[in-house]
């Protein structure tokens, strides 16, 4: 059971103050009865709620896929920089979603957002071994020795030894390289620090996959969409 005004405001129909006004005007019905108390308790999954004659579609959680652009931070709020939440429409912001894990400010690509705390925990907890796949451009040549080093576990500058990672070389020359890297952790600046550990620098980084989900090629940087039922089922299979 939840408060009626909370249910309606969370679905983007206005603030709780607005809902109170709607009730005074007789615009809200629950199971065919005009509501007189905006704070009444309702089971939103069993009751039929109408606002101004329109039946509302209740849902507790929201699941979003974003192509994060450069220069935007993976946070819910910040006093200086634009956040990924700032890129959302108001009807998604009202669910108060948060990023699942983080992408660095200058990293682009697949970022998932939700208000489902349980799913968030399952996807970022190391014990679940969720794959994260990145495409990167490197400033130097990458070779077989690097593949072996990443497979054996790179030791970062703070002494932490990473789990086994799969490094795939797409192109490589003395001018630089393009690679694809699969990791199962999310340490601070991890991909960049892994390459720094072998004397190389990441000059461009994009996350292409997370938990089996592939970034929708139709999404331009800064755009997002809701996950399909199939995509959500795939994530929850972890």
TrEMBL record:
Its EC number is 5.4.99.-. GO terms for biological process: enzyme-directed rRNA pseudouridine synthesis. The keyword RNA-binding applies. Residues 2-65 form the RNA-binding S4 domain. Keywords: Isomerase, RNA-binding. The keyword Isomerase applies. One of its GO terms (cellular component) is cytosol. GO terms for molecular function: RNA binding; rRNA pseudouridine synthase activity. Pfam families: PseudoU_synth_2, S4. NCBIfam families: pseudouridine synthase (TIGR00093). Belongs to the pseudouridine synthase RsuA family. This is Pseudouridine synthase. It comes from Clostridium puniceum. The lineage of its organism: Bacteria, Bacillati, Bacillota, Clostridia, Eubacteriales.
């Amino acid at each position: 059971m939840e408060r009626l005004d909370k249910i309606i405001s969370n679905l983007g129909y206005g603030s709780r103050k607005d809902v109170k006004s709607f009730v005074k005007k007789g615009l809200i019905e629950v199971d065919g009865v005009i509501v007189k108390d905006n704070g009444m308790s309702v089971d939103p999954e069993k009751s039929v709620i109408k606002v101004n004659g329109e039946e509302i579609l209740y849902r507790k959680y929201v699941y979003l896929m974003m192509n994060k652009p450069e220069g935007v931070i993976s946070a819910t709020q910040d006093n200086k920089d634009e956040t990924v939440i700032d890129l959302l429409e108001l009807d998604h912001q009202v669910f108060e979603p948060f990023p699942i894990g983080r992408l660095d400010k200058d990293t682009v690509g697949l970022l998932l957002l939700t208000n489902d705390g349980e799913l968030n925990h399952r996807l970022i907890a190391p014990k679940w071994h969720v794959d994260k796949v990145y495409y990167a451009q490197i400033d130097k040549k990458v070779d077989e020795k690097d593949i072996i080093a990443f497979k054996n576990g790179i030791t970062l500058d703070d002494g932490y030894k990473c789990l086994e990672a799969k490094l795939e070389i797409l192109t490589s020359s003395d001018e630089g390289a393009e690679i694809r890297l699969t990791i199962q952790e999310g340490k601070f600046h991890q991909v960049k620090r892994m390459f720094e550990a072998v004397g190389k620098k990441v000059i461009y980084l994009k996350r292409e996959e997370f938990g089996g989900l592939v970034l929708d090629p139709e999404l331009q940087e800064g755009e997002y969409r809701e996950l399909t039922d199939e995509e959500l089922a795939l994530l929850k299979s972890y």
